[in-house]
Amino acid sequence: MKIRSVLTRRGAALVSASVALILVVAGVAYATSGASKTISVCVHKRGGGWYSARRCKRHDRRIKWNAAGRRGRRGPRGPAGGPPGPRGLTGARGPRGATGARGPRGATGARGATGAAGPAGSPGVAGVSAAIVRSGPANQAVTSTDPAIPTVMDTIALSPGSYVITANGWAQGTSSSPDTIQCGIDTGAGDQSVGETLAAPEQGSVAITLPVTITASSTYHLNCYRLDNNGMNLVRAQLTAVKVGSVSAQ
Fold this sequence. Notes:
Blueprint: H1 9-26, E1 31-32, E2 38-43, E3 50-51, E4 61-66, E5 132-135, E6 139-141, E7 151-158, E8 161-173, E9 179-186, E10 195-200, E11 204-214, E12 218-226, E13 232-244
Antiparallel strand pairs: 1-2, 2-3, 2-4, 5-13, 6-13, 7-12, 8-11, 8-13, 9-10, 9-12
């Protein structure tokens, strides 16, 4: 079969269709692009023959056409199938299987290692020690009327630490005229003291409490003095010091 070497514009379309058919029938080689799916061949200027080449020879021309035609229109949807069939009957329950034999008892696991001992706890707060008790004379007169030089009713010596010091006694007038007694606990310098005031001829108890913390050995006194010149005695005077872990002011 022979194709004219000179192709007109009108005949180009006919050549394109004819070439596609002839290439398939005759088995002539042609190039197909993977990206555009087109067929590309070179056509001889003379004679109209074609050939496949990466570059056409001089004076020859290249023609291209689609390897596949356009996609046709989507056909109508086929008719739906028939209605679903009825649900089948539930099968009978099978018999229960026999209980399997009991497996052997597993081996006893190894005993875990003993954990490390925890850290030692901090020492606790010191507990209350034995009370230190000092008792003065059974019946001692309060002779001083000078607050700067009171009558010493009793003394107690203490080592460094925290203490709760208490003083107790019974004040009793020795005359029918009223008098006033005042007592306190201090170190002799008058810097740590609390007072107790009682009037005669009424009788009454002396009860004083003083919490202290000392850093050096000290001696505490139970001191009393009168505000008038009438007689006054302190019966069964007593000093008690109880050592504690700590004291705090409230």
